[in-house]
Amino acid sequence: MRLTTYGRDGTPQGYTSNLAVEGDRAYFRTYSRAEKNARLDRYPEVEIVPATMDGVPAGAPLKARVRRLDGQESQHAARRLARKHPLMQGVLVPLGYALKFDRPVHYELRLIGE
Length: 114
Description:
With 114 residues, the protein is of the alpha+beta class. The protein is 29% helix and 35% strand.
């Protein structure tokens, strides 16, 4: 998916991210030092759109709201992502976190108006 967050001045910032869907919610993660965490904490409304691996939009955009997860909810999101994308989210991304001495931050995403 392509996730668009918004800066203080309303400037959109787009990112490509893997997503794991479970019922009416979806999960994604990012690095704890990523700038998008501050944007998501400040303004939790985002736009998502299905996208190719290189971020080219492949569908209609949808408005959504994100919520930062912790504890067991964060662990649940990590398991869902690893199950959905076993090589990327189960092996490569966790290895990247370890090599960068960083930790993942998991988010729940829900469509607005659903």
